[in-house]
Amino acid sequence: MTTPAGSGAGFGSVSWWGLSPALDLQAESPPVDSDLRGDAETRTPELDVLLLGSVDGRHLLRTLARAALWPRRRLHFYVLENNLEAVARHILIFSLALEEPEKMGLQERSETFLEVWGNALLRPQVAAFVRAQAKRLVHLVPEPDRLAEQLPWLSLGALKFRERDALEAVFRFWAGREKGPEAFPMSRLWDSRLRHYLGSRYDARRGVSDWDLHMKLHDRGARVIHTREFRRWRDTGVAFELRDSSAYHVPNRTLASGRLLSHHGERVAARGYWGDIATGPFVAFGIETDDDSLLRTSNGQPVKTAGEITQHNVTELFREVAAWRRPRTAQGNPEQVLEDQDGSPERCSAQTLHHKSCYKERFQLLYVACGMVHLLSPDLGATVAPGGRLVVELARYLVDLRQEQLQGFASRVEELARAAGFTLLPQARPLETFARFHKAPDSACGPGSAVDSMTPPPDVPTPPLEDLSQALEGRTPPPEPLKRPPESLALSTESDSTTRESDPCPHL
What we know:
The chain is of the alpha+beta class. The chain has helices at 25-28, 58-65, 84-97, 106-118, 124-140, 144-150, 161-174, 186-198, 205-217, 227-236, 282-286, 306-330, 378-381, 403-419, 465-472; strands at 46-52, 74-81, 121-122, 154-155, 250-251, 257-263, 266-272, 297-298, 301-302, 363-368, 384-393, 422-424, 434-439, 487-494. It has 15 helices and 14 strands.
């Protein structure tokens, strides 16, 4: 069997890293209006951002790292994911990023982040770090008071008790309650996914890898991704080899997720790797940088690889976050904690946010990942304040999609955004990574003002790409993933102070 080009199967049904470079969300937001949504006591302008499917925290990290460049502003991030494993990864990533410098040095923190975030296999010491953090989080998740004390930047108040229990179970698996590599045989699972994806092309996988890299990723702007690092990732799942290759042999349990499989005619839950095996984690931090010297070429070839650029960018992000937090402590300023809102937050999914009055026109910025575009609807648009912005991640770096499919996807995004009450902002280039929209100050749209946003036209693949694209090719779709409604996670921070907790919504 040969997997048809343009099937989208390599994207998988679970996303673990972004397929676009990290954004500074303040740069994407409307200008600061000190009279709008300011704190009653300090009149500090606020920015509420809703992110659907951001998966790896890259936009939040870059926003925090660059906060010192902007006027003082109180930031609230509301993160919706379609599986609890992604929520758990968010918590782990930010626990690492916001770790005190005295406990973990900058280089160690950066290298640990890169391995946990982008590698299928870990070094033993990094795997030990994940286990230790997971054991800590197992005890914090069910105890809100301890969670607020130790992780003041995090609020899980919008999760139901059963969802907290499921989140705790994820951390217990990471902590290694199920001993041995057979609990999650990552190398075998990766190879199985690769064989299914390539079919009869498996024995020619090196040639397929080179074709996808040079004829697709390079042509679309990711020329710094080196052939050697891309082949290694395609073969083993190890994107960032910071030490000798023999050091990477412990499965990265944070990349595990559940799925329903058919066994003797019955649906059974199975744990496996269902993520990306086509594009890789190089795009998020590895193809753009503020240091132009890293993008130099020699004889027409980049002098730095995507892995080297990623390591530089992540190190600088962590350095800037630490420098942004340190002056307040050095000056002796007390931590400014947001006033607790009246009551408890209510848990909502992307489809029901508009039913809660506390979310109506609440957000100045809405970010939608390409895997969540099917949720872009007039109801979701109603949660964005007049004059607010919408940023949608396009499918530019999905190597399985042909050029006409990319164009069709972008057209579909524009159609859904218009129906949701947004107007397209001017594009800088024909092939864009993001589509940007704004909501008119007098904009108003209701549920009945648009076409059904959940049903894409038959010739344009709207993610989740794997299941839909199988149907587009006229083949039987693969076993469906475990269905969970989007889970919510709230982060809150102020750009000139240390991070803190904020309840996402008062009880109605």
